[in-house]
Amino acid sequence: MNNRIFAGFEEKVTFALRDLFSSYGYSRYKMSRFEEYDLYVRNKDFLISDSVITFTDTNGKLMALKPDVTLSIIKNGKDGQGSVEKVYYNENVYRVSGGSHGYKEIMQVGLECIGEIDGYCSYEVLYLAAKSLLAISPDCVLDLSHLGFINEVFKGVGLDPAYRGAALSLIGEKNLHELMSLCEEAGLSEENARRIKKLVTLYGAPEEVLPRLKETFGGICDLTSIEELEETVALFDPETRSILRIDFSVVNDVRYYNGTVFKGFVKDVPVGVLSGGRYDRLLEKFGRKAGAIGFAVYLDALERMEDLRPFDVDVLLLYGENEDFATVRMWARDLMQSGKSVQVQRAIPEDLRYQKLMKIEEGRLILLEEYA
Q1: If you average pLDDT over residues 141-152, what whole number do you get?
Q2: Same-domain check for residues 66 and 112
Q3: 2 & 132 share domain
């Protein structure tokens, strides 16, 4: 992808997300480029990459260029009585990029909701995650899962705790063959092994999948987590609800996460561009009593797209040296008011991809080229 084009798209998405989060009352969190390395080495499994750039400060402390923002927010925050801390960030982080496989300065955008998390807080964060994906591409999906329900299923089918970690990993990989072998080794009945398989293979819209999960597991485990998902999904408007999918292969590290977890995808990107969930256990590691839910958008993942958009601009509008500027302005505004993005130029810029090429001649608007 053309780096100039990607940089422009990245900036556009960043501003859109900042406006979205601010409109819901989230305050911007700003941090230093550096943090003590110990913060990250103690929580390496929480990081998207365990490769951290380090250096020794003048006072002899081992410091790191920040590879993550969430850990800093948790470290520097305080538990409030009955209140919820709502912050968003857009910060450059430093880590190995999935696209280049080398260290890179990457813009990371996300938000955190920390405090007494209730059903509305969970809905709001999930809703903002869905709106964030739609700001990137209308062709997107937000997959939802719930670690609490997976654990309830493990208990309900009688899976020995010694096997649960391995089972969770295999569920995340959707490795059905090895998962069924593990169920056999753990001594599960064929019926309970089929239940585990169904948990992994059921995928689809919440209104289709959640009733089937209640039917399958209603007699053997607590359905509170499924009812929690139903209540959350019911708050969504039709547009955002349409991109939601239930997928219990979405799992995060149980040492940090509990409750709802989710992952966002957009067309033509082979990896998730958004990831988040409920992470009360991470706060416990910091000695905090609050709950927390949040997500991050990984803008570097978008570099894997072969083509973010077929065009850089909807209309390239040309005008000659004798054209009246007021007329040029009038035509440009008319096109913009019809919902088109318009770039006004005297000549065609090199490498600019446009859907329509139009020209103003003697006050009239003429279509020169158009691409599907």
Answers
A1: 96
A2: yes
A3: yes
CATH code of 93's domain: 3.30.930.10
Instruction: For residue 355, give its domain range.
Output: 313-370
Amino acid at 315: V
Total structural domains within the chain? 3
- Summarize pLDDT for 34-92 with one digit per residue, the tens: 777 777 777 777 776 667 777 788 778 887 777 788 888 888 888 877 789 999 998 88
**pTM of the predicted protein model:** 0.79
**Angle CA 329–330–335, to nearest 5:** 100
Residues 151 and 116 in one domain: no
pLDDT per position as a tens digit, 293-310: 999 998 877 776 545 567
Q: Is 250 part of a structural domain of the chain?
A: no
Are 88 and 70 contained in the same domain? Answer: yes
